[in-house]
Amino acid sequence: MASAAALVALRVAARECHLATPSFSDEQAACGLAVADVLRARFLPLSTSAQAAAPLLQLPAELLAVILYILDTRDLAHLAATCRSLCHDAPPPLPLPRQIGPVETELRRRAEARGLDVGSSLPEGATSWVMCLLKRDRRDAQMRQAPLALASDHSIFLDTDGRLLTCGRDTIGFPPVLGHAVDPDADPNIRREHGPPTPVPSMQDRRIVSVATSFSHSLALSAEGEVFSWGGGAYGALGHGDTGKRTVPSKIESLSCIEHIAAGPNWTSAAVDEKGRLFTWGRAISDNAEEESDGELDKSEGQGGLGYELDAEAEYQATPKRVVALSQERVVGVALGDGFTLAVTDAGAVFSFGFSRHGGLGHGSSDSEVLPRRIEAMAQTRRRLVDVAAGGCHALALTEEGEPYGWGDGDANGHGRAERTPQRVAALIGQRIKLVNTRFFSSCAVTERGELFTWGDTSCAYKKNGIQVMPKRVDGLSGVEVAAVAIGWAHTLAADADGVVWGCGRRALLGLGALGPEDEDSAAVRTPTPIPTLRMRVLNSP
To answer: Which terminus of the chain has fewer Cβ atoms in its 10 Å neighbourhood, N or C?
Structure first.
């Protein structure tokens, strides 16, 4: 077993690799060799030049296993492409049994740790176990890791080191959402603003891999599977068992080994752990349900997407609680809309529950669902879903083949008309989509080539005010390969394959200047503009 000192040194070496290569180009072999050279220099400090060429395989097997355990999917892919001796991927001459190399062993371990059944035979059309497992691991990692999150008045970023940064403002009358300590004697009627993206001091000793936010509260997921929350605690949205606010991120003690997080606009939150168990907490009644009931609300018709019934007088769940109705499913992704929830499983099915407005649940009616119910219209397409996104009253789902489906409110579902069941977005037929994202009344999609399409409320993208109901390519990013994207109320951010972050919308929310009057064009950026002070680490294809 490797010593504690060796483990610390391994983590330092892995970090040095990440810092030395914050973004990989197509020159995978050169990058893979750089990673291998750093590891050899750290763990094989040999004196002669002949000895310096010793392969990585000369390390003790248990030490090599720890190195591969620490590396992320991208670095594993580059090592596999460079060091063929780590793979043993080609079938040997019969009748010899196939050898399983260290990289494949590590990938199988990761899959098994997440409860995935890898199987004994390659999927149809696949020729390489390593590439097949890398693709699956990368897809799962991409769903788990969101380096950007936007709300109405603030933005959250992760830089190349996994540091948590925020910019924007704390709005008068709302809880502090920037994550920075507040002077208890400060005037609550004065807005706090941060111009450029600023690191959150209390989180500098944590490596964050994913963030989620709403207008009132935010979540951050660490590399160790810990969840931190801050902002407004109304209706137990922060998950700490009370309704108090937190000005700085605080760890949710009841959660561990988490792989996916989500924050909804209805004071709700959700998390999925490594075993595929879904946990939700926060408000149980939707604002929209109360408004449309005219005060005559039957609680069973207004549940806000928690996935379980509460006690008769309860309006919220203040600590994370498992959605037991999905105990027979392995959840791999979750999205929170305004009073409703979507959950996608490892089998490729999507379940929805909560308050249905404009057909946002996808079941063909406006009936609410307290417990999770599978969307049968998607099951009938015989398509396996890999991702979901929820907006205010609309939703998107993405198939394994890169086909987006939309339903709900017609301004942002991609169809230009309301749809109560999922329908394929016709305007994007012929485009293979790798990412979808929604927020409030807007949506976006990124193609495999890295082209960004947006639609919905486009006040910050194409003109000052208006609705772009059909997907439209963002020409201002022509030639830029988008690798991550987030869309907010009045701004949009996209990170390219090199980690450069591009933004359009309100300047202060992009970290490009002070917040000006809302009716002045000078306060907004109409075309995508790089944020010079920020570089992000994004996931690329192996």
So the answer is: N
